[in-house]
Every structure is written in structure tokens, then in C-alpha cells.
Amino acid sequence: MIYFDNAATTYPKPQSVILASNNALKNSANPGRSGYKSSLKASELIFDCRQKAADFFSLKDVENCILTPSCTVSLNTVIYGTLKKGDHCVISSLEHNSVLRPVKKLKDMGVISYDVAEVFYDDEDKTLESFRKCMNDKTKLVIATHASNVFGIKLPVKRIGALCKFYGVLFCLDCAQSAGVTPIDINEIGADFLCVPGHKGLYGPMGTGLLLINTEKIPSSLYQGGTGSSNLDFSEPDILPDKFESGTLNLSGFAGLSKGIDFVNSKTIPKIHSYEMSIIKRVYNSLKSMKNVELYTSEPDSKRFVPLMSFNIKDKDPARVSAVLDKEFGICVRSGFHCSPIAHKYMSTGEKGTVRLCPSVFTTSFETDKLINAVYLMSKSKK
Amino acid sequence: MNESKIINLSSITYATKGRNLLYKFGIHADIIKSPSVSGQPSCGYSLVVPYKGEAAAELLRKKGFKILSVSEGEDF
After folding, report:
1. Count of domains for chain A
2. Are the C-beta atoms of A65 and A55 separated by less than 8 Å?
3. HSE (CB half, 13 Å, CA atoms) of A242?
4. What's residue B39's pLDDT?
5. Residue A374's beta-bridge partner residues?
6. Chains A, B: CB pairs < 8 Å
7. Predicted local confidence at residue B41, as pLDDT
8. Is A116 strand, coil or helix?
9. Which residues contact A287 (CB under 8 A, 6 or more apart)?
10. What's the average model confidence in pLDDT over B44-59?
């Protein structure tokens, strides 16, 4: 199997991740509930992951690093926990449904209003200006993806962070496609919240996510329950991370994620980024020379893109392209709209969607050649 | 004074963070499930500090830890 669907989840996972997850599943009790050795050992695994994640994103207080089931849950926690009746929020034109849908639902319920700031990947000033124009005196939260999950386009997040600070607006950054492939310092960016998946660029297991809180304006929690702390109180504890971690944590998942972060640190982000960008540039330039292949951005560069891209073959349905790549060439890619309808609207690919490609550190030169050759053969074929 | 103390913290996260901090200052501490204090039920987690217990508590306070109680640690 040749795997180019790492934007959905990285595959394969490092052996250290698999071993750590298996060991935790075999050997550990419930973390943060009891005082015997096995439970305390489980708690150590959880703390270890939390500390590594906080350090990875330069978050000062380890307790402000919340372990969640997914990036989507992290985003929903920020959106539902922050926005109240009458508030306004701004999202970018490249957002995933994990932002668009909760925001739209709150709007449909008559709770909030929101505006979409258009992103111009070749003009940061215009992007900034569109965010500024969307903000008003009711704006409480700006949510932006760090990088589009369809086109790989990075947003000028430091400048958006500075804009939010200037207007006193909370800034939430969706790092679904950037964590692990581009450096992220929560303070340098000026983000109040980072939402991160554990199973993509951090190479952890599915079912793991992070919410990093870098503000004293703590959201309300989505759900309540047992935390192993303040057990006699009828109300949830206000302390972090307990406020957001009711219920038993995914120990085997976070034990694996801890090793995933180690893996990324050992490779180093500059090397990962450089390697994956070299693959995506090679694919882009090869596909660009093919007569029937459609591309949607200029050549990806390190400043403006993360290593993922979309393409189409003229007169061919992306789902058909994906199916043939799988069936005839053993190549895994994702086709369609990638849960991001507004991104397609703004990039004019809304009629049929795209085929998306995303390498990982495990992608080889040989596999890249096979992909390029397969797309070439398909672009020449009338089938 | 080299007194033993039990330092009651609000959660396992703070207990682990506190233990790691004390370790950096050369103070050994173990994490335990919090015992009842003066007949009052307790929950969450505590640090048992066999030596320099008061100094450990003071250090944690200075570093911003919310300490729920400090009790004698002789029984642990």
C-alpha cells in the first residue's frame, strides 16, 4: 500500500507509538482515580504526555494542556464554551466543518452571528484586511485554521493573532494540518487556544486530541462528570485540566501520543517540513506538466504552504480517480470535499471537489514516483 | 527541621507537577491518594514529603500551587 492520505491520519505509526499504546492497554489501571501502583503509573503516563505536549507548543502551564478525544472536540469546547448570546465571531474562508458546523448551529439557534474572512494565499495584507473588516464591537472570538486541509495554504497567523490582541478578541487556532509539520509557539503566534489532533502530524493514535489554553478567560465545559478530584462537590471543579476531562481518559491513546511527540522531536520539525515539502513540490511540478491535470495554487513553498495539495484530472470525477488509484496502483488518496465546503466555494472547486495528496516522513521517493506515474497514466486514459 | 508532611493538592496533575518541581530542588516526594484530614473526608492526591516537609510546602506555595492542607506525615 502506498499511502498519501496523511492529512486524514498518519500511517504507518512509529513502532514506539504502537508499543507504548499496547503496553498501556495491557498493564495499566485507570489514571487519576486510585492510589495503588498501577493507577499511579497510569497517571504518570498521562502527565508525561501532557508535559511533552505543553513543551512542544511552548505552553507555560502544563495544567492548561487539556487532553481531548479529537481536534474537533477541542474546537467545539472553545466555540460552545466561549460564545454567548449576542456574541459575534469570525472564521476564515478555509475552515473545516469542525469549525463551520458548530458556528452555524449557534447562529441557527439565534445565539450568535458570524462572518467569513476571505483568505488570499498570495497576499497576506489582503487576508489581514478581510479579517479586520469582519470584526465589530460584538466580536468575541476569531477562529482560523493554521493551514487549509484541502489546499495546504497557510494563514498569516501571527498577524491575525496581533490583530486579535489589538481589538481584545480571543484567537483560536486550528492546528489540524500544521502540528508536527511546522513550528508552533503559542506565545509567538499570540493564540489564546490551540486545537490539535494527536493522530496526524504528531503520529499518535486516533482518538487523541489536545486543547491548549493560553488565556485566563476559561471557556465553560461541554460536559460534566467524574474527575477524580473534588469528589464531594456537586459542581464540576474549576481547576484545569479537570474541568474539561470528566470521564476516563484514553490512556493507551495518550501513552502512544507521548511517544509520537518524541518521534517528531527526534526527527525535528525543520527536517520533517523540508522533507515533506520536497515531495509535495516534486509531485506538484510533475503534475503541472501533465496536460489534463488541474492544479489550484501556485507552486507550494515553505512560507505559504504545509505539505499537502489538491488536484483533479479534467473530465474525471475525483472519486473515480481515487478508486482507480487504489484498485489499479495500490495508492491511497482522499477524494471529494474533505469536510470543507467553504474552502471549495472560495477556491471554485465546489462542483466536484478534489483529489488530495499528503505525504509523511515515511513516504519514499519510490512511492512518489509511483504516484506521479499513476496520475500520468490516468490523465492520458479516456476511461 | 526535617519534618515529614503530607501536602494535600487538588488533583493528580498538580500532585505530579509538584513532585517534579520538588525533585528539581532536591526534595523527594511520593504521590498518594489523599487521606482524611482531622476527620474531614478528602479526595484528590497528596504529596508525602519525608524530609523538609514545611520547606516543600512553602516552595510549592511560592510557585503558585494551591495547597488544600498540610498535615503530619508520620503514619505514611
Report:
1. 2
2. no
3. 23
4. 63
5. none
6. 53
7. 63
8. strand
9. A293, A295, A311, A372, A375
10. 94
Please tell me the distance from the alpha carbon of residue A8 to that of residue A356, in angstroms, as a whole number.
10
CA distances from B11 to A225, A353, B15, B44 (A): 15, 48, 6, 5
pLDDT digits (tens, 9 = 90+) for A166-205: 999 999 999 999 999 999 999 999 999 999 999 999 999 9
Query: Would you call B33 and A232 a contact, using CB atoms and an 8 Å cutoff?
Result: no
Say yes or no to pLDDT of A134 above 80.
yes
Q: Which of A235, A266, A297 is the last residue of a domain?
A: A266
Cell numbers for A46, please give them.
Answer: 498521562
Interchain CB distance below 8 Å, B12 and A47? yes
Q: Which residue ranges form the domains of chain B, and what is each CATH number?
A: 5-72 (3.30.70)
In this complex, the residue of B14, B31, B43 whose CB is nearest that of residue A230 is B43
Helices within A135-209 (DSSP H only): 157-167, 186-189
Per CB-CB distance under 8 Å, the chain B contacts of A32 are 11-13
Spatial distance between the Cα atoms of A121 and A340, rounded to a whole number of angstroms: 17
Q: B67 pairs with which residues across the strands?
A: B9
Indicate yes or no: CB of A232 within 8 angstroms of CB of B32: no
Domain shared by A150 and A282, yes or no: no
pLDDT of residue A163: 98
pLDDT of residue A230: 77
- Give the mutation candidate from A34, A43, A65, A258 for the B interface (greatest B CB count, under 10 A): A43
Residue in chain A closest to B10 (alpha carbons) equals A229
Q: Assess whether A246 and A322 both reside in one domain.
A: no
**pLDDT band for position A162 (cuts 50, 70, 90):** very high
Q: Please list the alpha-helical segments (H only) found in B1-76.
A: 12-24, 53-62
Instruction: Tell me which residue range forms the domain holding A183.
Output: 15-266
pLDDT > 70? residue A383:
no
Whose cell is 498519501? That residue is A4
Which residue is it, cell 515553505?
Answer: A302
What is the value of ipTM here, to two decimals?
0.88
In three-state secondary structure terms, A289 is coil
Q: Rounded to a whole number, what is the distance in Å from the CA of B43 to chain A's nearest CA?
A: 6
Q: Which of A46-55, A233-242, A252-261 is least confident?
A: A233-242
